[in-house]
Design brief:
Chains A, B: Its cofactor is Zn(2+). Two copies of one chain form a homodimer. By secondary structure, chain A is an alpha+beta fold. The first copy, chain A, is built from five helices and six strands, in the order H-H-E-H-H-E-E-E-E-E-H. Chain A folds into two domains: 78 residues, Winged helix-like DNA-binding domain superfamily/Winged helix DNA-binding domain (Arc Repressor Mutant, subunit A, Orthogonal Bundle); 50 residues, Ferric-uptake regulator, C-terminal dimerisarion domain (Dna Ligase, domain 1), CATH 3.30.1490.190. Chain A is globular, with a radius of gyration of 17 Å. Chains A and B meet through strand 6 of A and strand 6 of B. Chain A binds a DNA duplex through helix 4.
Chain lengths: 139, 139
Amino acid sequence: MSDLLERLRGRGWRMTAQRRVVAEVLDGDHVHLTADEVHARAVTRLPEISRATVYNTLGEMVTLGEVIEVATDGRAKRYDPNAHRPHQHLVCGRCGAIRDVHPAGDPLADLPDTERFGFTISNVEVTYRGICPSCATTA
Amino acid sequence: MSDLLERLRGRGWRMTAQRRVVAEVLDGDHVHLTADEVHARAVTRLPEISRATVYNTLGEMVTLGEVIEVATDGRAKRYDPNAHRPHQHLVCGRCGAIRDVHPAGDPLADLPDTERFGFTISNVEVTYRGICPSCATTA
DNA sequence: TCCTACAATAGACATTGTCTAAGTCAAGTG
DNA sequence: CACTTGACTTAGACAATGTCTATTGTAGGA
């Protein structure tokens, strides 16, 4: 069922009810929950799970490269389980909806050497901002 | 001296010592201070300036489009006075250094209609991440 | 079954940001 | 220049998000 869970198991993770629940909550496409949203959903399945455990578990998943941390709004970080398919994000400035998107081209190639200031660049994040269709109609 | 200050004056801002100091602290290129860093520097020039005023003033500058808010790390927001020349950011993952950069090409053109989900896109932010030269040598 | 190291818990603490009520002052008016 | 007014500033409480610690619990191997 959960690809995420399978991959984590294969990395020698000690499997606990808490970790299983967090992984299950994160499963799916276009999932971008905050840590507290993950906690709220986890609690419905495992009432005694603590906030600290959710934060720890999410942090470990990020370290293992199985989940990506996204900061789209300067508020709470969001967690994106779609870590194995490179993608960017499209964000609605009104309701905060987030979609995964796949731009053509390589943004890294667009940065000339003279603009790299000697940095070794490892990663490029692109955030498209706009208004989603449902917010546009309820203008 | 401060272009920023001149533009704000021209918009009917009531000019106060506090606002002047905040604008002066922000003046320059490759400036990306957090609100508390702005406050710390402002205090050296105007000891009685409050944190709330710094937050308010920065917020107003952002609303007026004279300063850009940048969230590069999911921690404190940073404030970039270089609002009138479109640019992107290059961030060192170790020390947090930030440089303004100017990629070639238009990232918006790279997003096909089928990947826009009906959104009206108004803005694209690109963040290049890597290691800066001085962090690379002190590996 | 028992042990042990790793994991989970509650809650204090830290950081960043927002709000409120009261006092202060910039700048227009006479 | 003095007056007035509404915008501005202030201190500190509050809120949201995230981290840490000391203690208790438990997964999984021996």
